[in-house]
Amino acid sequence: MAEVKIREADQTMLKAQQQVDYQDEWFELQPIEKKLISYSLTLGIGLLIIFILIFKPF
């Protein structure tokens, strides 16, 4: 009987730990990270357009 209660307690602890791990997996980006992402995407797309216009591969 005691083993069953220990197993149930272990299972509830594991479920709680999994929920905590899942919540820690994703978090909001900081403003500087959002700014860096937007700058890098803008620069990448801009250079792609410039290179396509300069070299005209099509």
Can I get a quick summary?
The protein has 58 residues and is mainly alpha-helical.
Give a written overview of the molecule.
- With 58 residues, this protein is mainly alpha-helical.
- The protein has one domain (1-55).
- Helix content is 84%, strand content 0%.
- The protein is built from two helices and no strands.
- It has helices at 2-25, 31-55.
- The protein is rod-shaped.
- The mean pLDDT is 82.
Low-confidence stretches: none
Portion in helices: over 70%
Helix and strand string, N-terminal first?
Answer: HH
The residue-averaged pLDDT reads 82
The fraction of residues assigned to DSSP E strands is: under 5%
Number of strands: 0
What is the assembly state of the chains in this entry?
single chain
The N- and C-terminal alpha carbons lie at a distance of 75 Å
Q: Taking Cα atoms only, what radius of gyration do you get, to the nearest Å?
A: 25 Å
Structural class: mainly alpha
Q: What's the shape? A: rod-shaped
Transmembrane segments: 36-55
Keywords: Membrane, Transmembrane, Transmembrane helix
Secondary-structure map:
Elements: H1 2-25, H2 31-55
Name a few traits of the molecule:
58 residues, mainly alpha, 2 helices, 0% strand, membrane, transmembrane, transmembrane helix
